[in-house]
Amino acid sequence: MPSNASRIPFDQMFDVLNRILLKHGFSTERALLCARLFTEASCDGVYSHGLNRFPRFIEMIGSGLIEVHAVPLLDAAFGALERWDGSSGPGNLNAHASMSRAITLARKHGIGCVALRNTNHWMRGGSYGWQAADAGLVGICWTNTLPNLPPWGGTKPTLGNNPLVIAVPRREGHVVLDMAMSQFSFGALESYRKRSEPLPVPGGFDTNGVMTSDPAAIEASGRVLPIGYWKGAGLSLMLDAVATLLSAGCATHEIPPEVVKETRLSQVFIAMALPGDGREEMLSEIIQFLKSSPTDGAGVRYPGEHTLAIRKENLAEGIPVDPDVWKQLSDMLLSGR
Amino acid sequence: MPSNASRIPFDQMFDVLNRILLKHGFSTERALLCARLFTEASCDGVYSHGLNRFPRFIEMIGSGLIEVHAVPLLDAAFGALERWDGSSGPGNLNAHASMSRAITLARKHGIGCVALRNTNHWMRGGSYGWQAADAGLVGICWTNTLPNLPPWGGTKPTLGNNPLVIAVPRREGHVVLDMAMSQFSFGALESYRKRSEPLPVPGGFDTNGVMTSDPAAIEASGRVLPIGYWKGAGLSLMLDAVATLLSAGCATHEIPPEVVKETRLSQVFIAMALPGDGREEMLSEIIQFLKSSPTDGAGVRYPGEHTLAIRKENLAEGIPVDPDVWKQLSDMLLSGR
Fold first, then answer.
1. Pick among B118, B141, B286 to test the A interface (most A CBs inside 10 A)
2. Best exposed site among A54, A128, A136, A316 by fewest CB in 10 Å?
3. What is the pTM assigned to this prediction?
């Protein structure tokens, strides 16, 4: 967030987004859900895939890449595993519908899986993990992306920076991992550069192929590092392969390599029922043990801990917004369309 | 492998292990499968969890931690998701039975999941990925371990170095990711140290808490790095949480922290059917695209590529063995028990 950020109450942000979506032809119900998903992403601190991404979302509607009214269509059912065609619908609505269907399948079969093809960017992946955990289930989901991550040993991006989400419900707040395959996102590199700070650990290569913690040098080369070098590169490939083969959708190399047009993605949504057996407290014990490690840094965190803290703050204080983005949205609301 | 390694033909190694297992009371059928899994691990180059691990496996039978005749017992069935009790049986036989059951469930329901508790070390995790892919299915499995990985920011191990396996079938040889959560295993650190080589990338901290590529310094501190720092630490926690809650088994912190006695593990086995739809070649296309990246290193590899090459070599030339370990096994065969 820029230093001149101001804070907007959750309800106000939600209302503005909802009204813009209605202007763009969304049905009442779909506008509400779509606005909520965007607002929640910003409220949880994922500004890049919340409010800041909204103008591009509207742009993709304008250019016809996102079909406002399209819903996923069942392509094939194999029992607890189903294949759906996203019909180029709004990515977050498609993803929400898919996890919702996976939850229904899991309630019937113990585990459920929806493979979705031909969909758009799902915005914040964590949303669908929280969705499963809110329903009391384990949620696992991932998406592929356009080629934007060089493999280990390679100088050009032939992998996607495919995010993986794993969520487990917990009474005191769910535990949700939402991680992309690169060590740092391009958004994170930009933030460090603007603050004139080096990365805390090497995050990529400079144009000479030397590993570096200088964010600007990595932005210049485009060579971000996969997490764990060869390991994250391998994981990224497998996520693309499984999503593509299960959904019969596009693989990373078939997705047009134009960031602003990223579309026709393939995704997987898995939900797993947790039978009540008195072991619900185990997750709290696991976290307690995790945190029992002495620290020589800034402490030990569990996945989603930061999210819970930011959410609390932003609900109380308002959600920080970039004034330029906020003005852009206000203009959208006032303009003819 | 030590420099004085000699090579033993696959059939001979398999025969020796089979006969030792029979001496320890394994049934004919179970001895054959157990010997095959150990031999295949070594044949595929995973010596640490093949032949080299066999003496400890026999030791754990002797100390009563592994019950030779125990088989997994169905604890609860929820349709496509089942919970089994490993009954302290041999870890590789339990894991093989569990993936086999997940495959059966997936053939019926599209996807199948077995959560297994109270089992022993599964030796090479990749085995069960290859098993699913050999059956024409996608396989995903993981296990928890005892606490042996410090979390990001922490100085003491409160996470397990939980391996994750993802396998996708392919006609020219399956693509199988088999990765633990640490950047380097302790076995790998030992190999680099013995060759007096630094690690190719930082692999942990020294006793002063400084990140280092010196294998001996990391062995001294025990502070290996999770892949992707905070990201791999988060992934490790989630794998433990899901395995524990689904199986109602022990979490990492409940597993006795004695390496030689590692037992009562929790594991998850997922199989997913790939409906024939003419997209089988997509995986080869994905790999072709991956490898289209120019390289400024030793080239770009896909998960399992090295395994396929080593397997071919070891089948043709014999499997390299540590002469001391091989002598130990020959002695076992000749001894009273």
1. B286
2. A316
3. 0.97
